[in-house]
Amino acid sequence: MASNVEDTTRTGTAEERMRPKRLAKRKNHHKWAYVFIAPFFLFFLLFNAYPMFYTIYLSFTDLAGWATEANFVGINNFVNLYNNQLFRRAISNTFILWTVNFLPQIVLAFLLSYWFTSRRLNLKAVGFFRAMFYLPNIITAASVAVIFSSLFSYPRGPVNQFLMGTGVVDTAFEFFRSVTATRLIVSFIQFWMWYGQTTIVLQAGIIGIDEDLFDAARVDGATDWQSFTKITMPLMKPITIYVLITSLIGGLQMFDIPYLLTGGGPNQSVETIITFIYKQAFTGGRNLNVSAAASVVLLVMTMVLSLLVFRSLKERSSKNIKRKKG
To answer: Could you tell me where the Basic and acidic residues compositional bias lies (predicted)?
Structure first.
C-alpha cells in the first residue's frame, strides 16, 4: 500500500511539473499565431487605414497644386462641393448609369439562374453557358473600351455600317456626341460585363436551398414558376441583399469604362463621382483638397445607402414572416 501511495504521489508531482512546460508551449503557439496574422494587419494599416484617415484629414485642408503645407479650413471644401454643379451632375450621372445597367442585369440574372437550376427544363451544357456568360468579366476594361469605341466609331464603325446597310439610317450617326446614346452604351457595357457574375452568385444561392422544399411543392402540384416565386425568391433574400449592396458599391465607384470611352463626355453626361475625383486630384490644378472631400462624401454615401438597403429589405422580410404567422 505504501508503495502505491508513493507511486501516485510521484506521478502527481510529475504531472504538476509538466504543466508549466505545457502552458509554455501553448504560449509559444499563440505567439506564432500572432506572427502569422501580423502581415494582414500591417498591410491593412499601411494601404487601407492610413490612406483613408489621411484623405479625411486632407478634406479639411487647403492642400492643392504643388504645395507641401496644408492649412486647416474646416468644412469649406464640403460647402464648395455642395455648390459645385459638376459634382452634383456627377452624382446624378452615377445613379443614372447604375440604375440603367443594374435593373436589366438583376432581372436577366434571376431568369438565367432559374433556367439553369430548373429540373423540368434540365438544360444541357450549363457549365459551358455559365463560363461564356462570365467571360466578359475577365476581359480588361481597357480592352472593352477599345472594342466598343471601334464598334460605335464615326463614320465607318461596324454599327454605323450595319445601320446604313439595312436602311435604318441614311447617314452615319455620331454615337459619342449624343448624351442618350453615350449613356446607353456605357450602361450596356457595365451590364454586359457583370451580369455573368451576378448569375453565378444567384445560381449558387438557389443550389444551396434544400431540395426537399421543392419536392414537397411538386407533390402539392406547384409549378416551377410557383416554386420559384414562393420558395426560391423569399429564401434568396440574403443573397439578393448581398448582390444589391455589392452592385451599389461598384456602381458608385464606376470609373474605367466612362473615363476610357469618352473621358466623361459629351457635356459631362457620363462624368461619374470617381472620374470627378480623379480629374480633381491628378489633372489641372491638382485640387487634392477637393478630391479628398469628394472621396469622403462618396464614403459616407456608400455607408448610408448600403445600410438603408440592408435595413429596408430586412424589415420587409420580418414583416412578411409576421404576417404569415398571424
So the answer is: 7-18
